[in-house]
Design brief:
Blueprint: E1 13-18, E2 39-40, E3 44-45, H1 47-57, E4 61-66, H2 71-80, E5 91-96, H3 110-115, H4 118-124, E6 128-133, E7 136-138, H5 142-152, E8 156-164, E9 172-176, E10 182-187, E11 201-212, H6 213-224, H7 233-244, E12 247-251, E13 267-269, H8 273-282, E14 310-312, E15 314-315, E16 318-319, E17 321-323, E18 326-327, E19 332-334, E20 337-339, E21 342-343, E22 348-349, E23 354-360, E24 365-366, E25 371-377, E26 382-383, E27 388-389, H9 393-399, E28 401-402, E29 408-410, H10 412-418
Binding site for alpha-D-glucose 1-phosphate: 107, 172, 187-188, 205
Domain Nucleotidyl transferase: 16-284
Family: Belongs to the bacterial/plant glucose-1-phosphate adenylyltransferase family.
Length: 420
C-alpha cells in the first residue's frame, strides 16, 4: 500500500476529468454513450476509477467536462456523485460543452475543455489542478504526484507508465534525463526514446497532468491566442512547456495503489472491444491483477438499490450455478450454468443456457438453451432461446460484430435484425 508523506496537498487541489471522448474504437458500445460512461466491473462505469482515485486521495473539488453523447454519463454522475457538499468546501461540477465562449464553439480539444471553464474553476479557488483522463482503469494516489510536483518545482508534472519500448509506439512518449526532467515529448513515435540506463523501457504518458492553477491559466490563455493550435494538452500545452519551461515525469509505480494481492502496477486503456472484454474477464481470476475488494481504496459508484442475486434449480443439466464469475445484484440465474463471466445488475439467465467468458451488461435476458462464449452483450439485450454464439466464427461475423481476436459484441439492433 502506498505510504503518504508530509502534509496533504489534495485539499488544495481540484481534479478536472476530461470525459468528452467519442470512444469510437469500442464500436457499438458507444453508439449511445460516451466511453467514460461504458459499464465496467459488474456495477461501475469506467469514469468511476478516476473519480474514486480523486476522492480516495483526499481531493474534494472535482469538475467533469463532457461533450459527446453525454446524457448517460451525466445521469450517472448526478445519481452517484452528488454527495460532495459546498458547505464543507467541496464541489462537483458537471461541465458540458455549452458554447459559453462562443455560440458557435464546442470544446475544440482537451486544453480548450479547461480553458472554456476558467471562471468556474476560479470560483472554486484551487491552488493546484490535477488534469485527468476519464477513460482508464487504474488505482492511483494523486497526493503523491502533487507532492513530487511541489518538491521539484515543476511547471507541469506528467504521470507516465514504464512500458516495453516498442510497445510505446501508440502513446505520447517522454524522453527524460537522469532526474526525470522531460527533454522531449513525441506523439506515437516510430522509434520511442528509452529511459536512461534502460534501453528496453520507454515512458508513456497516462494523460494525467499536475499544474499550479495560476500557471495553467497562463498557459491556456497563451495557447488560446496562438494561431494554428489544436487546443490540446498532448499536442500543444505539454510540448510547449517541455521546450520553454520545466516538465517532470512522475512514474506510475511510485503512486499506484496496490493491496497485498496485487503484484504489479495495473493500468488499462479499455478503448477497444478486445481490451474491454479482457479487462473485465481478468476480474474473474482467482487472484485478479486488479483488486476491487480492497476496502482501503474503494471504487465509488452509483449504489443502485437491488435485491440479492438468486440461483435456482439443481437438477442435472438444469442447475443454477456460477463458477469463477462475478454476479451482481438483482440477477436471477435460473437453471443456467455460468463460467468465468461477469454478469451486471438485473440480468436473467434462463434454464439450460450456458455462458462462458461472457460480459453481460445490465438488464439483459438470456433465453432458454442459449450458448454464449467469449461475448460482450450490451445493456438490455434479449438473447433468443437457443441462440449459439462463439462456436462458428463465420456465422458470428455475419450476424454480429466479431473482432480479430474472436470476441463477439451483441447489441439490441443486431438481435432485432435476426428476427424476420
Amino acid at each position: 500500500m502506498v505510504e503518504r508523506r508530509g502534509q496533504p496537498l489534495a485539499r488544495d487541489a481540484m481534479a478536472y476529468v476530461l470525459a468528452g471522448g467519442r470512444g469510437s474504437r469500442l464500436m457499438e458500445l458507444t453508439d449511445s454513450r460516451a466511453k467514460p460512461a461504458v459499464y465496467f466491473g459488474g456495477k461501475a462505469r469506467i469514469i468511476d476509477f478516476a473519480l474514486s482515485n480523486a476522492i480516495n486521495s483526499g481531493i474534494r473539488r472535482i469538475g467533469v467536462a463532457t461533450q459527446y453523447k453525454a446524457h448517460s454519463l451525466i445521469r450517472h454522475l448526478q445519481s452517484g456523485w452528488n454527495f460532495l457538499r459546498s458547505e464543507r468546501n467541496e464541489s462537483f461540477d458537471i461541465l458540458p460543452a455549452s458554447q459559453r465562449i462562443s455560440e458557435f464553439q464546442w470544446y475544440e480539444g482537451t486544453a480548450d475543455a479547461v480553458y472554456q471553464n476558467i471562471d468556474i474553476i476560479e470560483s472554486r479557488a484551487p491552488e493546484y489542478m490535477v488534469i485527468l483522463a476519464g477513460d482508464h482503469i487504474y488505482k492511483m494516489d494523486y497526493e503523491l504526484i502533487l507532492q513530487q510536483h511541489c518538491e521539484t518545482g515543476a511547471d507541469v508534472t506528467i504521470a507516465c507508465l514504464e512500458v516495453p519500448r516498442m510497445e510505446a509506439v501508440g502513446f505520447g512518449v517522454m524522453a527524460v534525463d537522469e532526474q526525470d526532467r522531460v527533454t522531449d515529448f513525441v506523439e506515437k513515435p516510430a522509434d520511442p526514446p528509452s529511459v536512461p540506463g534502460n534501453p528496453d523501457i520507454a515512458l508513456a504518458s497516462m494523460g494525467i497532468y499536475v499544474f499550479t492553477t495560476k500557471l495553467l491559466f497562463e498557459e491556456l490563455r497563451r495557447d488560446a491566442e496562438t494561431p494554428g493550435s489544436s487546443r490540446d494538452f498532448g499536442k500543444d500545452i505539454i510540448p510547449y512547456l517541455v521546450k520553454h519551461g520545466k516538465a517532470v515525469a512522475h512514474r506510475f509505480n511510485d503512486s499506484c495503489v496496490r493491496s497485498g494481492l496485487e503484484k504489479e502496477a495495473y493500468w488499462r486503456d479499455v478503448g477497444t472491444v478486445d481490451a474491454y472484454w479482457e479487462a473485465n474477464i481478468d476480474l474473474t481470476d482467482v487472484v485478479p491483477k486488479l483488486d476491487l475488494y480492497d476496502h482501503s481504496w474503494p471504487l465509488w459508484t452509483y449504489a443502485e438499490v437491488t435485491p440479492p442475486a438468486k440461483f435456482v434449480h439443481a437438477s442435472d443439466g438444469r442447475r443454477g450455478e456460477a463458477v469463477s464469475s462475478l454476479v451482481s445484484g438483482d440477477c436471477i440465474i435460473s437453471g443456467s450454468s455460468i463460467h468465468r463471466s461477469l454478469i451486471f445488475t438485473g440480468t436473467r439467465a434462463h434454464s439450460y443456457s450456458t455462458l462462458d467468458q461472457a460480459v453481460i451488461l445490465p438488464r439483459c435476458e438470456i433465453g432458454r438453451g442459449a450458448r454464449l462464449s467469449k461475448v460482450v452483450v450490451d445493456r438490455g439485450v434479449v438473447i433468443p432461446d437457443g441462440l449459439i454464439v462463439g462456436e462458428d466464427p463465420v456465422l458470428d461475423a455475419q450476424r454480429f460484430r466479431r473482432t480479430d481476436n474472436g470476441v463477439v459484441l451483441i447489441t439490441k439492433s443486431m438481435i432485432d435484425a435476426l428476427i424476420p
